[in-house]
Amino acid sequence: MGNRFSCKTKSTHNNGSKSSRRFAGGNRSQRKLQTDEELLHMQALSLAIQHHQASQRFEGSMSRRIGSTSSRRKSNPVSDPVLNNSTPKQQKQSPEFLENLETKKIVLIHGEGFGAWCWYKTIALLEESGMIPTALDLTGSGIDLKDTNHVTTLEEYSKPLIDYLQNLPEDDKVILVGHSSGGACVSYALEHFQQKISKAIFLCGTMVSDGQKPYDVFAEQLGSAELFMKESKFLIHGNGKDNPPTGFMFEKQQMRGLYFNQSPAKDIALAMVSMRPIPLGPIMQNLSLSKEKYGTGRRFYIQTLEDHALSPDIQEKLVRENPPEGVFKIKGSDHCPFFSKPQSLHKILLEIAQIA
Question: In the UniProt record, does the keyword Hydrolase occur (predicted)?
């Protein structure tokens, strides 16, 4: 396998306090943590309101993106150990850092059932570092009004991303980040728009090989595609029971266990009211990936080590069978590091952006 990169987060433990001054300082730190976390969730509510307003104004034919937010946080959130051990230089990058990048544009692609809304913490952190993030709603996801029962191909599912890349200036490039099954959309984009992609980052994603379907990555945990299509209790038959299934959606309790076993309760609540059914066609489609196009793209993989939806062993198998240029790991993260370990994820995204 190519060069391996590992992101290690140090745990910060309080060994106890012998003085009331230290104890008071600990209370202040705890209050600051709670305040920072509240600020992030206020931003989530703000984004949700913006989504709702946008859905009232548009008919659904447009590709909606989250790029900029009008408000900026005054301090970084303390959501995981990275911040507690970071120096000011790590927390906010210098202008020299930005000048040396091939591109400051990062396009965030959500996974199955999610939408652009899930990246709200990552967007805020990237903007504060001077990057230019854009989060897309894939077809039938987020506030895109397309009925998921009518999304049958990976090309159709990826259309907002395809449109975005097609509209980029000729010499412009972006960094793509694909979460979970959104990795298949990134692979598709690498095959068709390799010249516009600086780096492709698979975040606990379906980094498949030529001839594989995105579902194959989950087969060890969910059973074969054929068995799943016949027997899964989560299937949706949008065209009637006598016709093949068109989508699926896990029950809320199932989603909690698979996706959010390390995530904050408020983020889980946000997800429970925002998740949408998953179109079946795109994840059951075999990808055609060539060595000349997909094979020449710069790929990186971020592993999540407390993941119940895509186990660490399966993620390790993916990078072993289809080696990327670099591998990073996030300790203590479930399948949604943008919720459970936003600071660790942010740090790694910036590290990959800096790789020459």
Answer: yes
Residue type, position 233, single letter: K
Residue whose structure tokens are 């850092």: 97
Say whether 75 is catalytic.
no
Strand pairing category for 299-304 and 65-66:
unpaired
The angle at the Cα of 67, spanning 193 to 132, to the nearest 5 degrees, equals 70
Q: Please report, for the chain, the start and end positions of each structural domain, with discontinuous segments joined by +.
A: 96-354
pLDDT of residue 3: 42
- 180 labelled catalytic: yes
pLDDT tens track for 211-260: 999 999 988 777 777 777 777 889 999 999 889 999 999 999 999 999 99
Catalytic residue among 335, 340, 344, 346: 335
CB atoms within 10 A of CB 163: 12
Residue of 141, 180, 311, 340 marked catalytic? 180
Token duo for residue 105: 């544009």
Residue 126 near residue 106, CB atoms below 8 Å: yes
Q: Which uninterrupted H or E stretch holds 105?
A: strand 105-109
Contact 154, 186 (CB under 8 A): no
Superfamily of domain 96-354: Alpha/Beta hydrolase fold, catalytic domain (3.40.50.1820)
Torsion of Cα atoms, 93 then 99 then 103 then 105, to 10° = 50
Rounded Cα–Cα distance for residues 318 and 173 (Å): 26
| Catalytic residue list contains 335 | yes
Catalytic residue among 144, 307, 334, 344: 307
Beta strands in 180-216 (DSSP E): 197-203
